[in-house]
Sequence to fold (319 residues):
Amino acid sequence: MPTSFPAPRPRPGHSPTLQAWVDEIAERARSRLGTGRIADYIPALVNQDPERFGLALCTNDGQLYTAGDAETPFSIQSLSKVLLLSLALRTHGDALWQRVGLNPSGMPFNSLMQLETERGKPRNPFINAGAIVVADHLVGAFATPAKHLQDIARTLSGNPGVLIDHEVLASEWSHRARNAAAAYLMKAFGNLDNEVDEVLTAYFACCALRMSCRDLAVALNYLAADGRALTTGERFIPPAMAQRINALMFTSGMYDAAGDFAYRVGLPAKSGVGGGIVAVVPGRLSICAWSPALDASGNSVAAQYALELIAEDLGRWHP
Ligand code: DON
Fold:
């Protein structure tokens, strides 16, 4: 049963010092624009402007601090894997872990190598194969899982304008060979219940959601707040589940760079090839940084740097 709390609606933060700090971080992070590459394996993402940079911090009492292009919607891509996982655990609980593992892969997010030797059980829910299994779980539970996820993203962010970008969806579909290979391999090992095309469509539609830094910092604040959604005041997931998702983000949210990122930033985080990264400071706040140019692991260069600067200075203030 969800527990209700008074909902602290997101509102502009009231600390000028904190806003000045966020502005300064955004300014310093912009020095990294010009390094990295836009993801070009999804043609619909190629035309993103590499000079864009956005940052949003959302405290657990609903204060929002933003800088740069924080209100610009972008393709959330793998950030959707956090919402998908939350929804799957909420719906089916720990049964999911019979079909997907809990360990870092140490491999690129779209690698197929372990999938063959590990008999179709993906290492974790944040690599593509893992999220495809999670999507399969949801295809069984909801008639239109991506639409359901879109509704959840709207409710959690408080933004009814959150949409699936059909151009990105079509682009991912027509360049699906690698994800389709993973899905067919898992199907062959008996780890996919539904038809491959149906599962892939749901998975791509979730990746194709468009949200802004502001939307994402607000929507994923439940991970910093013991599972309580900021916009509704209700418990979206139980506290222990939020803790476990944070643990998975810490170990696997940044793919083969998870160890590097943990060393430099030390926060649970999840990235997407649209250039967004969400990070969580449990008990305090959620953060989303975005800039489209990526490093070799598929993580945004400027967004990572912004998070590094935030983590360095986090002890300086107490909202
Ligand atoms: O399936 C894909 O490859 C993309 N839709 C999502 C990949 C992604 O965002 C991985 N992130 N770094």
